[in-house]
Amino acid sequence: MTWLLHPHTSAEPPVFVKRLEAATVWKQGSTSRLQCTIKGSPELHTTWFFNNSELSAGGRYSISLKNGVATLEIQEVMLSDSGNYTCEVLNESGCESCSTKVTPLSIEAVRGSVAVLACELSGSSPFEVSWKKNKKRLNTDKKYRIMSQGAVTSLEIHSFESADTGEYECVVSNEVGSVTSKSVAKQKEPPMFSKRIESATAVLGNTVKLQGTLKGSAPITVKWMKDSELLRDDDPNVKMKYENNITSISFSSVEIKHSGKYTCVAENEAGQQKCEAKTEGDRRYQRIIRSAGLSCIWLPANNHTVVQR
Questions:
Q1: What keywords are annotated for this sequence in UniProt (predicted)?
Q2: Which residues of 145-174 are buried (b: 16+ CB within 10 A; e: fewer)?
Q3: Is the pLDDT of residue 299 over 80?
């Protein structure tokens, strides 16, 4: 008689490979996402909680678990979405959870525009709603307009200016209790060059880069112009880039046609900023490749005598 021994495999309990960030800030009106990475024996099941209440997929919420990544996505973020979020994962071998705190949501408004703060109403009506700025209660007037429609209450701030920046609170109460949601309002800052672009001279055939650093409220769009004409990506020797607040234009092989005045135009909803610089191809040192070999021609700066070697 022959005995076949099979190794015993035990199911692995769920473990968070990458946990939720300890804290995060969301912007009102955006689509925001919470994600964590999980491993463990199948089948894994996830449940999301907001302030200890279970969330269900549908409406503004999307919930998924794919390739070990658990995701909660919330569309059209409101003030009332700030709070504590928990992801709970379980299988037949165990249960694990991790949490994050979403701090007061912020909005950025352009000077002179109408800024809107919104808060979702949940629970049993009737509700009593009040809005506050820096702990002082607000009323509907020429500056503020308070509205409630369906399950949403909102505060409109007209002709937004620097004096309107600060912390806003929405207090919603019914016979059971009250809930306070907070937000920080900021004024959108126009783009500014914290490090301006400097002119450069390059030997013909060599590389050169014009580069500057920007600051201001995102998103910022950047475009480059040469001698007042918009540059396009049709020259393989020219590359334009904007990344990590650094804008640049680089030339992999400088030619005479690349000499001129370059203007970088940075723009967002709050305004526009320009920075100019020049690039010049230096003719004094020029490489010429011939079929018979390599020849170097030097054109001295003081006269036009040609020395060939």
A1: Repeat
A2: ebeeeeeebbbbbeebeeebbeebbbbbee
A3: no
pLDDT on residue 286: 53
Task: Give the pTM.
Answer: 0.63
CA 176 to chain CA mean position, Å = 39
The C-alpha atoms of residue 176 and residue 69 are separated, in whole angstroms, by: 37
Q: How far apart are CA 172 and CA 165, in angstroms?
A: 22
Res. 62: pLDDT tops 90: yes
Cβ-in-10-Å burial (0-12, 13-18, 19+) of 77 comes to buried
Structure tokens at 267: 């723009």
Q: What gap in Å lies between CA 140 and CA 79, rounded to an integer?
A: 19
Question: What average pLDDT does this structure show over 249-263?
Answer: 93
How, if at all, do strands 144-149 and 152-157 pair?
antiparallel
Q: What tokens does 299 get?
A: 């054109």
179 closest CA partner among 124, 139, 136: 124
B/e letters for 84-94, b = 16+ CB within 10 Å, e = fewer, are: ebbbbbbbeee
Pick 110-187's CATH classification: 3.40.50.620, 3.30.1330.60, 2.60.40.10, 2.10.109.10: 2.60.40.10
Output DSSP code: residue 303.
S
Look at residue 113 and give its three-state secondary structure.
coil
CATH, domain range 192-286? 2.60.40.10
Query: Which range (47-56, 69-78, 120-129) has the least confidence?
Result: 120-129
Whole-angstrom distance, CA of residue 213 vs CA of residue 249: 12
The amino acid present at 201, given as its one-letter code, is T
For range 38-64, the mean pLDDT:
94
Q: How many percent of the chain have pLDDT more than 70? A: 88
Write out the residue limits of the CATH 2.60.40.10 domain(s) in the chain: 15-104, 110-187, 192-286
CA max distance for the chain: 104
For residue range 208-225, list pLDDT tens digits in order: 999 999 999 989 999 999
